[in-house]
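Researcher: I'm preparing a figure for a lab meeting and need a structural model of a single chain. I don't have an experimental structure, so a prediction will have to do for now. The sequence is pasted below. Please return the structure as tokens so I can convert it later.
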Amino acid sequence: MSRTCGWCGDPVPYSGKGRPPQYCGKAHRNRAWEVRSAQARQERDRAAGTARPEGEPVREVVRETVTRSARIEVPAPGRVRTVQVEVPVEVERPVRLESAAEVCAVLHAVETAVRQGRFPEDGLDHVLRRAVALTEAIQDYRGWED
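Model: Understood. Here is the structure written out token by token.
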């Protein structure tokens, strides 16, 4: 005997013991709960009159922790030892940029950091490659030739 997963629709095997499972795994059970709880919050906000209008974009900033490794030379008696240390750094990044003005603001902030010497030297080549790729994408979109 089997059922179908309430999230993906794949068959979920049932051994015949206990309550039959509704999902094929924990991840799908969690996703389904997230959707149900988000819908419940949305309905609650609509009933209270505090819901965001349908066409209004959602803007949010996600906090994430980036771990960087640093090598520190630690003097030991008679030798020098290298120790790797994990340094957590909190970074705020927008999930998506909604308008040209927001993209320009980010690009301006990077430009200012580079001009003031606050941008890490080891990241400059990567940023330059992305800037060139962005320029090429815009040229391709508009059909421009070099």
